[in-house]
Design goal:
The complex is a heterodimer. Chain A is an alpha/beta fold. Chain A has one domain (about 10-135): Rossmann fold (3-Layer(aba) Sandwich). Chain A is built from five helices and four strands. In chain A, strand 1, helix 1 (about 20-25) and strand 2 form a beta-alpha-beta unit. In chain A, helix 1 crosses helix 4 (about 115-130). Chain A is globular. The mean pLDDT of chain A is about 90. Chain B contains 15 helices and 25 strands. In chain B, helix 2 (about 85-100) packs antiparallel against helix 3 and helix 9 packs parallel to helix 10 (about 380-390). Helix content of chain B is about 25%, strand content about 20%. Classes of the chains: A alpha/beta, B alpha/beta. The interface of A and B includes residues 8, 39, 41 and 110 of A.
Chain lengths: ~140, ~600
């Protein structure tokens, strides 16, 4: 191949916690991977399974879903829905031949700039090791 | 209660028949000496000193009576200072001086009636008790502890607990020592008891919280108040112990039945001003906080030097001496990466430490050493104050105070590095003031859960934007003021709170609220009325109308949880529609 694999990662971030957390990482001049393609939603509860599947269909190698910590949700319980939906979706994509590890759910609060960097770096490294999604599906 | 008219020392006086002659005299400023009378206790007639000459209506002969027990009947003619009365009192004082020859109060009173030497046999020159029974009455009738009583007869009569033994019935309230006219009772505290929690000394059970308290009314400390303690000790049996304050308060302002109330208010805005708490200085053991009473925090120093404080503003060591050397250590628990401490600067300590140094110099002329890392004199006039304190002769040691040791002599050894000298230094001082950190209150997480506030990593409540929205929060209508948002000194807090008040007024004066246009809406043609969205909505903004879902736009906050839940795709979240989000996903992936 010779060409370095640059994973494309769609990151859904809720407006109140993770998006603000990413902001605070930026304000603090912390470097996070450029592979992360942010999609802002008002609440992680807004992220429907369909969107995650759309991301994979459109060429994403991994999807990172991020919201407020349980108990901290700006809408009090939106992230509870996400916490139930995402494991279910992970189960389902296993059946269609996508490694469930390509979806990850993480909680990052508005003040956790360093944690945002940590989570995104770790996930990018994981996807880099898993290789491109297209290759996996072909296999 | 009927009105009566009596003559006292030739003066016609109106009274009512529920009063005693003594009460009438006291009300009319006619002096009568007493030793066994107390306004909140039943009169007892023990000391006989209040004897007056009384002539009843229609009689032509008079008799000597104790005025504290004699009712103020109509038509009485009372003489309070006639030769007979003076003679009777002289005898009373003679007997009393012979019993207690060395009690100053008795000596003075006896001298008033011309008795300077005990006229009778002195049994025990150290006797102090005059058997007035005040302590017995206060202990039984007021405190209801029933510890003190008389025992023995005649010459053997004395006062004490049963069998003169220590008893657990005694509360240690000290009421007997307060009413005792001759100082015959001492209280010896074997355990610190309720005072343990008050390191700077006991206060009265009823007190004004601080000199500047608003409203300036006293409060009752239910841990020390006899009425509440007796209620607790007797498991609710004794409900009316003491109550002296209630009987004496002329405004009838004391109400023991007052309880904490939960008041529900409908409001348009809330300002969270929950402040800070002091960081526990014993968390860093090197400062030996708690190991010597002369190692105190800045806040304790503040109390010590307060004119309304336990020493009336004098700066004293625990043994009552004036300190000759004092060390003030900055940044205790602040700017410290130790997991028990805080990384942030507490912001207020530099200036209050300088103020403390100034106060110590001013009040005691003690030598003051300030161990500081940097002097953060950032505000208006602060740098000038720093200069002034230096000119007052305070020794500035640039470097964090590393350790405080309690020496066997009781002195305190402070070691640290003087970065200017590049040397380790140690000083032995009498008092150490730790300029301890301030931190978010322990229950801040409860407050944040209640109002939906987020907190920054250091525990303070997060403002909406660090520069542009310093008083707003991410919850509409909830604002922050003061240290709830982060450490602040007084001027900054006043400024911050003013901004919060202005933001609140702006919100309330508008009379209407602007809500975000990002709300959800149901496509009623597509909706099948399954009701899933009703279950997930955190704001109960969705109702079923005519079998189909309908969203109240005023209640909807636009989180979109219902949109993701709807199985028939009938709900759209404006500004975050499925189409928009999917277009974004495709867009970012296409160009990545």
């Amino acid at each position: 191949m010779g060409v370095e694999f640059k994973p494309k990662i769609v990151a859904f971030m809720c407006n109140w916690c993770t998006y603000a957390g990413a902001d605070s990482a930026g304000v603090a001049r912390l470097e996070s991977p450029a592979n992360i393609l942010p999609i802002r939603v008002m609440c992680s509860g807004r992220i429907s399974p369909e969107m995650v599947l759309r991301a994979f269909r459109s060429g994403a190698d991994g999807v990172l879903v991020m919201g407020c910590h349980i108990g901290d949700c700006h809408y009090s319980s939106g992230n509870h829905r996400t916490a139930k939906r995402m494991p279910l979706l992970q189960n389902l994509i296993g059946y269609v031949g996508i490694n469930p590890e390509r979806i990850e759910l993480q909680w990052v609060s508005a003040s956790e700039g360093p944690r945002f960097v940590e989570v995104t770096k770790a996930f990018t490294n994981k996807i880099r090791q898993l290789g491109p999604l297209a290759q996996e599906v072909l296999e | 209660m009927t009105k009566t008219t009596l003559t006292i020392d030739g003066q016609l006086i109106q009274a009512d028949d529920s009063m005693t002659i003594l009460e009438v005299c006291r009300k009319n400023n006619i002096p009568i000496p007493t030793l066994c009378y107390h306004p909140v206790l039943e009169p007892y007639g023990a000391c006989r000193l209040c004897t007056v000459e009384v002539k009843q209506k229609g009689r032509n002969w008079s008799s000597l009576q104790t005025s504290c027990t004699h009712p103020a009947w109509d038509g009485l003619d009372v003489q309070t200072n006639s030769p007979e009365v003076r003679e009777a009192r002289k005898m009373v004082m003679g007997l009393m001086l012979s019993r207690t020859p060395n009690v100053p109060v008795i000596q003075e009173l006896a001298a008033e009636y011309g008795v300077t030497e005990p006229p009778f046999h002195v049994e025990d020159p150290n006797e102090k008790c005059i058997l007035c029974g005040l302590c017995v009455r206060v202990c039984n009738d007021m405190v209801q502890a029933h510890v003190l009583n008389f025992s023995g007869r005649g010459a053997d009569r004395k006062v004490g607990p049963p069998f003169m033994e220590k008893t657990r019935q005694c509360l240690g309230c000290g009421a007997c020592t307060i009413v005792c006219p001759t100082g015959a009772i001492d209280i010896v505290l074997e355990e610190a008891g309720v005072y343990a929690a008050k390191p700077l000394g006991p206060t009265s059970a009823i007190y004004v919280p601080s000199l500047q308290a608003v409203p300036r009314v006293p409060v009752i400390d239910t841990d020390s108040c006899i009425r509440f303690r007796q209620y607790d000790r007797s498991l609710g049996q004794i409900t009316d112990a003491c109550g002296a304050c209630q009987q004496l308060c002329e405004a009838h302002a004391i109400d023991f039945t007052q309880k904490d109330e939960i008041v529900e208010l409908n409001v348009g805005a809330i300002v969270v001003a929950t402040g800070f708490q002091m960081w526990d200085s014993s968390k860093l053991s090197q400062y030996s906080y708690g190991k010597s009473p002369n190692i105190i925090t800045g806040l304790e120093f503040e109390r010590l030097s307060n004119a309304g404080g336990p020493t009336l503003g004098q700066i004293l060591l625990a043994d009552g001496r004036k300190p000759e050397t004092v060390a003030i250590i900055h940044c205790v628990g602040s700017r410290d990466k130790n997991p028990n401490a805080h990384e942030y600067c507490s912001r207020i300590c530099c200036m209050y430490s300088l103020k403390h140094a100034h106060l110590v110099r001013d009040k005691t002329h003690a030598q003051v050493y300030e161990f500081y890392m940097d002097m953060r004199a950032f505000g208006k006039g602060y740098e000038e104050f720093y200069e002034r304190v230096q000119e007052e002769g305070v020794v500035m040691v640039r470097g964090r105070g590393a350790e405080v040791q309690v020496l066997p002599s009781g002195k305190l050894r402070v070691t640290g590095e003087d970065a200017n000298l590049g040397k380790l230094v140690a000083v032995d001082v009498d008092m150490v003031v730790l300029s301890s950190a301030i931190e978010a209150p322990a229950d801040a997480s409860k407050v944040s859960a209640l109002f939906g506030l987020s907190r920054t990593a250091d525990g303070w409540f997060a403002e909406s934007h660090p520069k542009l929205k310093p008083v707003e929060t991410n919850t509409d209508g909830v604002f922050l003021a003061g240290c709830a948002q982060g450490p602040k000194d007084v001027p900054d807090t006043v400024g911050h709170a003013g901004a919060a008040a202005a933001a609140v007024l702006g919100l309330l004066n508008r009379g209407e609220v602007t809500i975000s246009p990002a709300t959800a809406e149901v496509n009623r043609t597509r909706c099948v009325g399954c009701g899933d969205c009703l279950l997930v909505c955190p704001y109960t903004a969705i109702a079923r109308v005519d079998g189909k879902a309908q969203i109240n736009a005023a209640l909807c906050k636009g989180c979109g949880t219902c949109v993701a839940t709807c199985p028939s795709g009938a709900i759209e979240a404006w500004h975050f529609t499925d189409e928009q989000i999917i277009a974004q996903i495709e867009g970012v992936l296409e160009w990545a």
